[in-house]
Amino acid sequence: MMATRLLPATVVGLILLFLVLPIVVVMVVSFSSATYLTFPPPAFGLKWYEAYFSSADWLRPTWLSIWVAAVVVVLSTVLGTLAALGISRLPNALRVVVAGLVLSPLIVPGIVVAIGIYYAFSRYGLVGSPIGLILAHTCLSVPFVVTSVSASLAGIDPRLGHAALSLGATPRATFFQVTLPLIRPGVLVGALFAFIHSFDELIVALFISGSGAVTLPRRMWDDLRFQIDPTIAAVSTLTIVLTAALMWGAHLLRKHAERQLTKMG
Amino acid sequence: MTRDWSRAPPAMMPLLLVAPLVVFMLAFYALPVVAMLMRSVSDPVWSVANYAALPEDVVFLKTFSNTFYTSLIVTVATLLMAYPVALALVRAPRWAPLILVLILLPFWTSVLVRSYAWMVLMGRHGLINEALTAAGLLERPLRILNTPLATQIAMTHILLPYMILPIANALRQIDPSLLRASSGLGAPPWRTFMQVTLPLSMPGVAAGVLLVFVLALGFYITPAMVGGPREITLSMLIAQQVDHLNWAYAATLSAVLLATSLALIGICYRLPGVGNAFRMNVR
Fold first, then answer.
1. Nearest CA among B34, B280, B69 for reference residue B165
2. How much is the pTM?
3. Is residue B9 part of a domain?
4. In a domain, A116, yes or no
5. Could you give the CA distance from residue B64 to residue B67 in angstroms, rounded to a whole number?
6. A111: chain B residues, CB-CB within 8 Å
7. What residues form DSSP beta bridges with A44?
8. Average pLDDT by consecutive 10-residue portion of chain B (283 residues)?
């Protein structure tokens, strides 16, 4: 009896170990005191974090990535939320076309998107500029906003809107006082996803960031070509912690929203 | 505001709402990609010669089959590893929160960071080599980094959550009374698994297989980082051609990659249950 339960548990345990081990190893290496990459580290220290925080070569791309992602969040949240509100009410045939266009970045291979954007943007001087990155990242991040807001909208009882309208609220008041508060968690989750997607995006950045708009992932990529010193492990650990915190926030928000919806229904 | 847009005729409202995003995406995403793809039929002259040359193009054939083979290996490996984990996630509620965290933490980490992690693990002095040498299993370090095996391992790691989540969703939807009925009627656990659980989880399996295979076909960062220059994938060949400004060839290869992905999704989408399961899992 013990063996029949222990064997599957061991198999699952080993697979889960395979999943987390690489992440754990990067985190451990980031606290290494060695000047080269070795595992296990001979001793521990904050050397590589100091190297990161005292290097303009690392901090400049970090700030660029953060502010590009921040602008992308604003653009993709506004455009994506408006579109999600419209898509559900479009006539059938048109809805399929619009949803197909808007969601296609999720399945079109990254390299195809990247070289297409590079091909067009290089003609309009958008290569090597943060503006080019913002425009491209917005297109790639917006599907996360649209899917997240659409899911929230699908969970809303349409009678709530009808009730507001029949009680004399204007369509605008209905939107701002009924619909928007109900979809707010979906909008926030979409915004968090958009931020992370832009912050982590590499393939498009490889082609269009040039030398004038080097993002953090691009800087890491360039560094890996020449050396693998543990500074990258420190940067990686910081980004793992940042994205895990944001995603955990999104996860809790979504759970919270689901609970509220079931309470109402 | 001079004109109140909320007073537009009701039929126009949805159009006005989607218009800004549609125009934005056409301008900065769809038309650029289409313009690039057009180079495959317009360069050097308007013809389908670029495509007609592919069946005799040795580099293309080798790269395409290598990409397909890699995706196949990764799909099989993720499927074999994902099923037990998905089953544990659904059937062991006490452990589910921990299992979920262990799946999501790597899932939320960027592909670049995860590929870098595998460089650290598989390098000459990486954890794998050090551990095997220390255990006396190796005399000198194995060469794993910059081989096709490295690509397969790292891609399996990166795509595993995409297989686990749809299978777990399908398993969660199985009515527990069916399992009770099966064992109540005297079926041993393995028979309940083979004849009830496994068939009922097939939509999730198919969705996971489709998702992982299609994503694997387009992988670029991971094979470029850990796979080495010899066995390249279609994405790497495309990037190389762009570096050489060979747009006609890059566009032709891109069209083939895109068409293959879309065709696979189009075919599988029609299988019962798969469309739904797939839609639920494209985040």
1. B280
2. 0.91
3. no
4. yes
5. 5
6. 218, 220, 235, 238-239, 254, 257
7. A32
8. 53 90 97 97 90 94 96 98 95 91 91 93 83 82 88 97 94 90 89 90 92 95 90 94 96 97 86 62 44
